[in-house]
Amino acid sequence: MGNRVIRAISLILVSVLTLTACSVSPSAQPSQGSISKPQAIKAATVVDHQAVQKVDELTDYPEALRLAWQKGLRDCMAKKGFTPHGEYYMPYNATVRSTLPPGELTIEEARQYGYSNPEAQKLAAEERESTITEEEIRALRGYGEENQSNSCEYIVSTKIFGDIDLADTLFTADKHLLPYAEAAAMSDDLIRIYMDWAQCMNNKYQLPYKAPDEIFYEYRGSQIPADIPVADATCREQVNYEDRVMELLNSYMTSFLENNQALIERITQAKKNAEENAPKILDGTL
After folding, report:
1. pLDDT, tens only, 8-61
2. Helix, strand, coil distribution of the chain in percent, nearest 5
3. What is the average pLDDT across 224-241?
4. 182 near 12, Cβ under 8 Å?
5. What does the alpha-carbon distance between residue 71 and residue 283 come to, in Å, rounded to a whole number?
6. What is the dihedral of CA 242, 190, 172, 126, to 10 degrees?
7. Among 5, 42, 129, 167, who pairs with 161 as Cys (CB 3.0-4.6 Å)?
8. Is the pTM value of this prediction over 0.85?
9. CB–CB of 82/136 below 8 Å?
10. Calpha distance 253→161 (Å, rounded)
11. How is the chain split into domains, by residue range?
């Protein structure tokens, strides 16, 4: 069993690394603050049971910021001679729960959709339908240029946050969660959750999986039988999987909040600047 649990944990770490790599900063410069090493991270002994919620709220984008980002980029691209189209997506910040895949799965969802998420599929289809030329990408993001300061993302980020480093700090905030997610993924607590889930899968359904991600590994590139997601979701419910994973994440996010005060202050300042400047962009005074 040991090797299979280790393989499952390795799959989680690959997923976490891929997820955080999707974040794109408008500046080529590194964000402020050093990222902790996984081996130095421990779960908090006194757990803040709202730590995950606090971290998600910290790294989330207020609606006014999203609207100002859209308007600022549309106006900037228009000034550069391009016809704005589609959505200009903000750099993606992962939620805490998404750093420890697989995501939540209820029995009802498993019965209706299997492992497919209709909303995620819709968003992916919309992104595929969006077309943008290489020339527009250069104007928007400045890719391939030594100096990105003339790109629209750089210009709008500076307007909203007043400082490009503050923009980078918010837009890459989830990268600082990565070592904590890795530490949670390697913890004995997660292995115990997997063992309880695996026992249910074996005893109730005669399925040999040692961790949920093993299912995706086995069926990569092919259709997963409809009964497997239902079995998975049923066993997760039976062993209280989701609540235990969230409690595990709360323990590591408590450590994150305790260990990253300087980063939290910079993110808070970035959002404060955005709160002040976003309305000015929306009403055309900035």
Report:
1. 444 455 455 454 445 445 654 444 444 444 458 999 999 999 999 999 999 999
2. 65, 0, 35
3. 97
4. no
5. 10
6. -50
7. 167
8. no
9. yes
10. 26
11. 2-25+36-282
Residues 6+ apart with CB under 8 A from 215: 209, 224, 228, 232
Distance CA 156, CA 171 (A): 13
Tokens of 20: 């955080």
- The yes-or-no verdict on residue 142 having pLDDT over 90 is no
- Cβ contacts of 218-226, under 8 Å, gap ≥ 24: 224/114, 224/115, 226/114
DSSP letter assigned to residue 229: H
Give CA 222 to chain center in angstroms. Answer: 26
Tokens of 30: 């590194």
Enumerate residues 6+ apart whose C-beta is below 8 A from 158. 164, 167
Amino acid at 68: A
* Distance in angstroms (rounded) separating the CA atoms of residues 202 and 213: 15
Report d(CA 252, CA 162) in Å as an integer.
32
